[in-house]
Amino acid sequence: MSTAAFDPDERPSRPDGRRGGSLRMVRPRRAAPSEAARVTRAEINLAHVRHNLHELRACMEADAAPDATPAEVWPVIKADGYGHGASALGTTLERAGADGLCVALLEEGIELRQAGVRCPVLVMGGYYGRYRDGLEALVEHDLTPVVYDPAQLERLSTATRYLHRERGRAGAPPTLGVHLKIDTGMGRLGLRTETLDPFLDALHRHPELRLDALMTHFACADDPDEEVTRAQLAAFDRATERVKSAGFQPKIRHASNSAACLRFPEAQLSFVRPGIAAIGVHPCPDAPSRSAREANLRPAMRVLSEVVALRDLKKGESIGYGHSWTASRPTRIATIPMGYADGLDRALSNCGEVLIAGRRAPIAGTVSMDLTMIDVTDIPDVAVRDEVVVLGTQKGRLGEDVITAYEMAQTIGRIPWECLTGISRRVPRYYRHP
Ligand SMILES: *Cc1c(COP(=O)(O)O)cnc(C)c1O
Predict the structure, then answer these.
(1) What is the pLDDT of the chain when averaged over all its residues?
(2) pLDDT score recorded for residue 12
């Protein structure tokens, strides 16, 4: 795929005349804890986020050759930090020593800058909008672009020159560092190796742009079979040689998501890009690892609610939309104010479980938009206002148990990434800094 090159100076500004620096952010609207009336909530443990960063750095140190610098860790906090809140995660990770951060969207990068993040921020999606204010916002917020298309080079260098002129500066504009993405087999974004040469020619024609890094992305890093990842890494090495022989000296190379950085020490390179591991979820607990160190990750998110209503059913009574559940014995049902609009997947109807008093209880009937019913017959003395854990650990009067994102995902044929990013904006996030 290639878009036609064009000059952003000829491209219309936004109809309302807004400029890059004021690109409007659409922020997830969430009730602040003090104004949240509802009992359903997500607790984010920022100490666990710091712990996970230290664990990942320790893994990079354990895997580095004795005389080599360990790979840096640049956590990926796209999609609002996988539902944990990007600004809280970004500021916490930066203070805990993250060398850089990665996001997917320009808007996500701007949000981090507005939260006060100062470290390098890589915008991986490579899409900066149809208007030139997106490119200007990128430069003005000192975000690092990923490129893979000659048209992007044209637009970026024009935006750099334009901003320089507009600020009334003389001489040549400062160079803008870019990361070039290479498609080594994911088939999603990145330069295909067949088009490497024309791209590098185009790069030579843009002295405003500086090729700082080469990157790629693995398709099967969590697969027990290592073959695809090895082939992708070899293709990345070959592409690197071609870039160097064209006269470029990119100092940085990066490739690894969570699964690759924990399983393939040889793919750690200059820095790794762990997303799910940074929030404490192992990407592939069942695939073998060749890392010298086992990462001891701690999940950062717990999702909690409370019993708001109780009722006793006679044998044979049915409940919920479609009456998909019928009591096979005298049954006690508890209702919690969390439903699919909060991110409790409707596929969990009649098959998911939650924790009450430290013990498991099954979801009974169809998960509805705002409410879900739980069969608490086997848990003595459940009362209104009892805590219910939908995701995470619970210590209660009857014991201690955990529902992991991995378990929740497996129950319904999803992946933990979906379950976590699915917790909706309607659920207020409470941050703990123990
Ligand atoms: C999302 C993403 C990552 C992080 O993936 P995890 O599996 O969550 O670690 C890394 N690199 C790219 C390009 C991504 O899109």
Answers:
(1) 92
(2) 44
pTM of the model: 0.92
Ligand 1 atom at minimal distance to the Cα of residue 189: 13
Pairing of β 176-183 and β 191-192: parallel
Residue-level pLDDT at 434: 60
Which residue among 256, 257, 418 has the greatest number of ligand 1 atoms within 8 angstroms of its CB, and so is best to mutate?
257
- Here the tokens at position 163 are 């901003």
Going from the C-alpha of 425 to that of each of 77, 104, 361, 403, the distances in angstroms are 16, 19, 26, 21
Query: Which residue type sits at 426?
Result: R
**In sequence order, what E strands does 28-151 have?**
41-45, 72-73, 101-103, 121-123, 144-147
**Binding site membership of 77 for ligand 1 (Cβ less than 6 Å):** no
* pLDDT mean over 214-227: 97
C-beta of 258 in contact with ligand 1 (< 6 A): yes
Distance 323 CA to ligand 1 centre (A): 41
- Is 131 designated active site? no
Per-residue pLDDT reduced to its tens digit, 297-307: 999 999 999 99
State in Å: Cα 7 to ligand 1 middle: 32
Say how many residues make up the chain.
434
Q: What letter does residue 20 receive in the DSSP assignment?
A: G
Query: 11 and 132 in contact (C-beta within 8 Å)?
Result: yes
Q: How far apart are CA 366 and CA 323, in angstroms?
A: 8
H helical segments located in 28-69: 46-63
Catalytic residue among 314, 321, 395, 430: 321
Q: Which residues pair with 389 in a beta bridge?
A: 304, 355
Q: Which ligand 1 atom is the nearest neighbour of the CA of 283?
A: 7
- For the cut 50, the answer to whether the pLDDT of residue 366 exceeds it is yes
Q: Across residues 314-330, what is the average pLDDT?
A: 98
